[in-house]
Amino acid sequence: MCPMHLLPIISYLSQYTIIMRVMLLASMLWCVLAADKPHVLLVFADDFGWANVGLHTHDDEVVTPNIDAYAAQGIELDRHYAYKFCSPSRSSLQSGRLPVNVNVENASPTVSNPADPVGGYAGIPVNMTTLAWKMRQAGYRAHMTGKWDAGMATPMHTPIGRGYESWLGYFHHANDYWTEKLPFQSTGTVDVCGNAFVDLWLNNGPALGMNGTVYEEELFTNNTLNIIRQHDPKEPLFLFHAFHLMHTPLQVPQSYLDQFPFIHGSPNQRKPYAAMVKYMDDALGLIVGILKDKAMWDNLLMIFVSDNGGPIYYPGGGNNYPLKGGKMSDWEGGVRVNAFISGGYVPKELQGTKSESYVHVADWYPTLCKLVGVDYYDEAAAKAGLHQVDGVPVLDHFFKKNATVPRTMIHLSDQALIQGEWKVLVGQQVMTGWQGPYYPNATGLQPLYNKDSPVDDWKHECGTGCLYNIIEDPNETNNLALTNGNKLQELTSKLADLNKGNYNPNRGQGDPRACQQAIKYGGFYGPWIDL
Questions:
Q1: Cβ proximity of 245 and 217 under 8 Å
Q2: Of the four, 9, 224, 235, 419, which is 20 to 30 A from 188 by CA?
Q3: What is the pLDDT of residue 166?
Q4: Which residues pair with 167 in a beta bridge?
Q5: What whole-number distance in Å separates Cα of residue 481 and Cα of residue 493?
Q6: Res. 456: pLDDT tops 90
């Protein structure tokens, strides 16, 4: 609400100069505009399997009462797509570009390519304007908690450099939930520093004294709760909470493991994964609870999305049944993700509905820009010759204000394209297979993700094209390439043409200077260029 003392002042404007009149009217206008803008809570889950949420199963191993309730009070987004793995999806979300036009690499944040000062780093090119800056332009307070995975090389690559006022989280694909170090089990790779340092950052510096104190998700949840506690509800809030859960390593407090005594046997990933899902559901419940306590929920839009499908390879524990495949593949199980919108801002007559329209993670950038009244055109990117925002606003369609379907095509990757009801995949696809209602289980071995391994029998060669009607055949069981040659040719040609404009710069190699700077930070990863 506007300060009441402004109202009587307006009636005595004759005592003031023209400048004062303009300032007072501008203040009144800002108050009115701010009051009309909803708070925005953007929640990103990590490696959340399609069958690991109550929306898609009634399995007693899946305990997500809060998520299920929020989805039931909002609009379920049944055809929401993302990239097939972490960093590209996060880069897409923050930049508003399809991953093929911003980042398709899970590069270590310690890499650099001195020959390319724009794109020669992990994550988002520095010349792209990110979502938080747009929200702040609209008068929002912008805060973030959790996984970043969209760049670290310079201060401008960090969440603070990207527009967030505060951030507690980590830069890499994952870290240890208890120590915040980088065991091999967290990322499956070894960086130029030998994974030797701690990855936990607070605003503009290492989170000294915070690492190794509690379970990381408890640290993150408390940080988000404190942000909400300290926030003035009269100011519009943009809050991005990016869970580490359910990415490896599969670690969770014993009290949560104890809630699933009926899951036993080999392999043992299913039990900790189920417990991690329950922990995430509880944490989200606490976050929504405090928003309701502060009377912010009734004027809030919550967007919940996963960054990719569940990992079905060892040592992951995700399950995408009945969809085909999983993380690291372009099959539906890898790119069609759990998603919904909720909160009091969703019209009551639409609460409890489901949308079958296509939406991509890139679409939230222009959607939120339109919602808060700022132009999503990126002038800085245009000057640098980079791709413009290619997400599309979707909220008016979901709210039934616009019957036109905003998105009919999704350029998923350089190997996959959706157009209308058709989906084409080319080349080799990993994670090719279906899981059962209970997975992983003892009926067979999980694949070991290694795209170069000659013994991975979960690979499938699509060659010049596999073709599916994903509306009639959402589980991709019937390859129509042989019977629909014209459609196959049309889509493979379209994919090849689109691929000509892909943005995939040389991100460089591991930079030893990152390790030297980590030592100066007291043993913490962080920016090392342009300090």
A1: yes
A2: 224
A3: 98
A4: 144
A5: 14
A6: no
Q: Pairing mode, if any, of strands 416-419 and 409-413?
A: antiparallel
The pLDDT of 193-222, averaged and rounded, is 98
Strand ranges inside 380-436, DSSP E: 409-413, 416-419, 422-425, 428-429
**3-class DSSP state of 412:** strand
Is the omega angle on the peptide bond into residue 246 within 30 degrees of 0, that is, cis?
yes
Contact 475, 323 (CB under 8 A): yes
Res. 315: pLDDT tops 60: yes
Q: What integer pLDDT is reported at residue 25 of this predicted model?
A: 47
Quote the pLDDT of residue 409. Answer: 98
Name the β-bridge partners of 147: 170
Averaged pLDDT score across all residues of the chain: 92
pLDDT(114) > 80: yes
Q: Give the model confidence (pLDDT) of 18-65 as tens digits.
A: 433 433 344 444 444 455 899 999 999 999 999 999 999 988 999 999
Q: What crossing angle do the helices spanning 364-372 and 86-95 adopt, rounded to 10°?
A: 20
Q: What pLDDT digit, counting tens, does each position of 397-407 carry?
A: 999 998 899 99
Q: Is the backbone of residue 294 left (phi > 0), alpha (psi -120 to 50) or beta?
A: alpha
Q: Are 435 and 321 in contact (CB under 8 A)?
A: yes
How many CB atoms sit inside 10 A of residue 445's CB?
11
Confidence of residue 449 (pLDDT cuts 50, 70, 90): confident
Amino acid, single-letter form, for residue 471: I
| Helix axes 216-230 and 270-293, enclosed angle (nearest 10) | 10
Q: Are 363 and 394 in contact (CB under 8 A)?
A: yes
CA-nearest of 293, 396, 389 to 341 is 396
Q: For the residues of 74-102, what is the DSSP string, one character each?
A: SEEETTEE--SSHHHHHHHHHH-S-GGGT
Q: For residue 27, what is the enclosing H or E element?
A: helix 18-36
Residue-by-residue DSSP string for 221-262: HHHHHHHHHHS-TTS-EEEEEE--TTSSS----HHHHTT-TT
Strands 416-419 and 422-425: antiparallel
Largest alpha-carbon pair distance within the chain? 84
Tell me the C-alpha distance between 440 and 182, whole Å.
25
Measure the CA–CA gap between 320 and 150, rounded to whole angstroms. Answer: 25
Token pair listed for 123: 């994550």
pLDDT of res. 531: 64
Q: What is the mean pLDDT of residues 439-465?
A: 80
Q: Which two tokens stand for residue 119?
A: 């794109």
Nearest to 256 by CA among 63, 68, 69: 63
